[in-house]
Write a structure and sequence with these properties.
By secondary structure, the chain is an alpha/beta fold. The chain has a single domain, classed as Rossmann fold (3-Layer(aba) Sandwich), CATH 3.40.50. Helices cover 53% and strands 16% of the residues. The protein contains 10 helices and 8 strands. The strands form 2 sheets. It has a 5-stranded parallel sheet with strand order 2-6-1-7-8. A 3-stranded antiparallel sheet has the order 3-4-5, with no helix packed on it. The structure holds cytidine-5'-diphosphate (2 copies). The site of one cytidine-5'-diphosphate has 15 residues, from helix 1, helix 8 and helix 10. It catalyses: dCMP + ATP = dCDP + ADP; CMP + ATP = CDP + ADP. It holds the Pfam family Cytidylate_kin.
Length: 218
């Protein structure tokens, strides 16, 4: 099975690294965080009570979601920019704790493996819950100060006014919420390879994952 899972906390580099690994192998990417962000977008735009897990799950189950060429479409609307906002990330992390929502997104995520040459699954529970039989599971970590630095740079490069202390506090809050929830908490699978990228460049991380994959597939 051509499948690599890459899980880890916010700003550890999962998205960037997943895309580069997939590109090198000619595979597709499942950006599972986007599905939780889309769910948050639905809560925010459809005036749903954020505490109402059942309604959120029902509404999300019916959304028409399309990923194409770097764009994300929900019910015919292009939403990529809205999804990237920290307010959407915060809401995503809150509602991602609901078992009803996680169940509603389960099959949608597993279906990504069908009809593709291979898949890199990027998220929090790719190796533990969604693809427990994946042949290679990566858990990507980095020091929280380094992650805050990366997020800060990412925003400043885009011309956004950013506050380092706020970013750090948001990351710590989101880590805490994601690691301590009862359902599918952020943690390495027992058979995951843990990579600490605090002092590694992006290409070094990509190369080490490709090396791990080469070991598995020979
Ligand atoms: O998807 P996730 O939130 O885990 O992280 P990301 O958005 O892929 O990466 C956050 C930022 O860190 C990006 O600007 C990357 O270019 C950068 N990065 C880095 O500087 N060094 C690494 N080893 C990995 C990512
Ligand atoms: O880019 P970043 O790492 O900040 O976040 P993301 O991967 O887009 O995920 C947004 C939120 O969705 C996370 O804080 C998690 O609470 C949730 N999530 C999850 O619970 N399970 C996943 N497989 C992916 C994301």
């Amino acid at each position: 099975m051509n499948l690599i899972t890459i899980d880890g906390p916010s700003a550890s580099g999962k998205g960037t690294v997943s895309n580069l690994v997939a590109k090198a192998l000619g595979w597709d990417v499942l950006d599972s965080g986007a599905l939780y962000r889309i769910s948050a977008y639905a809560v925010q735009t459809k005036d749903i009570n954020p505490e109402d897990a059942q309604t959120i799950a029902e509404v999300v189950g019916k959304l028409d979601i399309k990923f194409q060429e770097g764009e994300v479409w929900v019910d015919g609307v292009e939403v990529s920019d809205i999804l990237r906002q920290e307010s959407t990330g915060k809401m995503a992390s809150k509602i991602a704790a609901y078992p009803e929502l996680r169940a509603a997104l389960l099959d949608r995520q597993r279906n990504f493996i069908h009809g593709v040459p291979g898949l890199v699954g990027d998220g929090r529970d790719m190796g533990t819950v969604i693809f427990p039989n994946a042949p290679l599971k990566i858990f990507l970590v980095a020091d929280v100060n380094e992650r805050a630095n990366r997020r800060y740079k990412q925003l400043v490069d885009k011309g956004v006014v950013a506050n380092y202390d706020e970013i750090l506090a948001d990351l710590q809050r989101r880590d805490d919420q994601d690691m301590n929830r009862a359902v599918a908490p952020l943690k390495p699978a027992d058979d995951a390879v843990v990579i600490d990228s605090s002092h590694m460049g992006i290409q070094d991380v990509v190369d080490s994952i490709l090396k791990e994959w080469a070991k598995k597939s020979t």
